Amino acid sequence: MNGSAVGPDGDAGDQHDELPALSSAFRQRIRPVLNRIDELRSHGLQSDLKLPMVAVVGDQSVGKSSVLEAISGVEFPRGTGMVTRCALQLSMQWNADPEAPWHGRISYKDVNGHKVDKELNSPGEVDGAVREAQQRMTHGDNEISSEQIDLAIKGPDVPDLTLIDLPGIARYSATGGSGIAQITKSLIAKYVSQPQVLILVVVPCHQDIETVEALSLAKEADPQGERTIGVLTCPDMVNKGAEQETLKIANNEKIPLKKGYVMVKCRSPEELNNGVTLAESVANEAAFFKTHRHFSQLPEQSVGIRTLADKLTEELFESVKRNISTLQNDILEMRKKFQEELQRLGQPVAETKDEKRRYLFEMLSNFNKDVAIATQGEMNARFHLYAKCRKHWTELGKQIHRAWPGWVTRGHISHYWQPPEQVTRLITDLRGRELASYDHVFPIIERIYKEEFLNKLKQPAEQFLEQVSDEVTDVVHLIAQKVFGDFQDIFEVVTETSNEEIAKVLELARADLSGRLFLQEARVFSQDSQFQERIAKIEEDLYKDNGNQQPPVPDSAERIRRGLEAYLQVATERLSDTIPQSVLYFMFDVVSKQLGNRALDLLSESESAETFLSLLREPRHKTARRKQLKEMMEQLRLAQRDFNKFRL
């Protein structure tokens, strides 16, 4: 790919005839201002400042990229269909050193919002890099992205200029249907509606200009045509007999624009296939307009890429002049706003050890206090662990009730119920020398209780423990964020230390459940009065269910069922309380105590204290923002200086 070799004094040397002389006048007159504008844009200030630029618009596949290529000397992706699928901002900067290497950088956000920043080492990489960017910014070849590609290049063979290549207006897409047109129109309108943007509308000569949607869109954004230049392409494709109509358009007679039209002949697909260079294309274009039977009648100021480039130079010059006062006022306002933000950021954190120690001790004390309040369940606590965990122990209670063997529940059986096979088998297997109906039922009740009820509670209890542990961890992190949020390094140390302590207590709680509580509950026990109360209530209900008549004398299976139901009532009430009590004791009380001790240890342990104190420094985001603000304020100061010179 070739580029302009025009020097700062307008000399192009041996390559003067190869490419447009856009940069010659441009550098001499407004290069410092446009360079400064590019610097403002590189610092992300284009959304706040009305920075002049050139936007190229047109219907799909009308040669927009060819026009940009001819003006800038930078090759853009070409092809049929939807080639340009997002806005591409090309910022070019001329390097006065003729021996300086060409350098480029492309940046964009992919479909996942990840920032991509890639160095380019040669002009030949631009085409592929842009195509790759468009692929990564969209989900398919017919999708339009609202994001923008930023392509910056610098070298001795490029002009000082910023161009915006916008997607062509597609009337219909095989996958996107007619809606694709509205998407592209909205994207184009976002740019061309800005009053400082110069609009280049590309219109192929062989197309009915009345149907060119890009021209209609430009008129909506620029009704008076003060910012619009018509660019007529493909004059070699005009049908015979239609030349006079095309001349009327070129002479600004059919659909007049205040800034008129320029007819250009860029490289055709055939010339591209034959390897015609940009330099040869310039010569071919000159010969075409000199010898064409009809278009040779057009004045020199209406044809050719050089004419378009000169016209563009003048219009950019005028755009800068029109917007310079507004830019200066906006810069003053932005400098004031940035200065106020710098003041709000305040001074960096003090550096002396004593001041750091006092500051850290106060923060750690606040952290411990907030954790204690959260675990004590006080009303109106900002971080209320009881409120967060109540749903978990409520669900645990329901799971304990659901763990009952289904055949035990009195409401699901009749007086003539058939006991389940495991009950009948146990009665038979465990019967010794007892007489019929005088067998001992307690061992069977105990065995069924353990195997069919208690063992089923271990998984829900473990799950409840994990849920409470997660809630505690989340709340501790929130408290740490509140107290240490401005000090990322300290926040990370405190949360990591908290995670370690919570993990240790979690293992203690887990051991207590399995090693104490469930072993303890495996011993079937109840106060006689409590158990007998429940047996009496069960028999009373059976009496009522039997029409207030004494039910049949219970057999062994029925006595097992009644005894198991009574004891399950006792155990369910007890376990619904003791499991949460055990978990809350460890995960609330023990965690709070351990965190309080461990947090203060960070300052008292001689080995870790120095390291911990060293972490108390300016928060990263504040440091970065302060640096960014200072850099932007410096750029704004330099821009204001150069704009003042330009006005003179």
UniProtKB/TrEMBL annotation:
GO terms for molecular function: GTP binding; GTPase activity; microtubule binding. The lineage of its organism: Eukaryota, Metazoa, Spiralia, Lophotrochozoa, Platyhelminthes. Residues 48-325 form the Dynamin-type G domain. GO terms for cellular component: cytoplasm; microtubule; plasma membrane; presynapse. Residues 557-648 form the GED domain. One of its GO terms (biological process) is synaptic vesicle budding from presynaptic endocytic zone membrane. Residues 317-344 form a coiled coil. It comes from Macrostomum lignano. It comes from the Eukaryota. InterPro entries: Dynamin (IPR022812), Dynamin_GTPase (IPR001401), Dynamin_N (IPR045063), Dynamin_stalk (IPR000375), G_DYNAMIN_dom (IPR030381), GED (IPR003130), GED_dom (IPR020850), P-loop_NTPase (IPR027417). This is Dynamin-type G domain-containing protein.
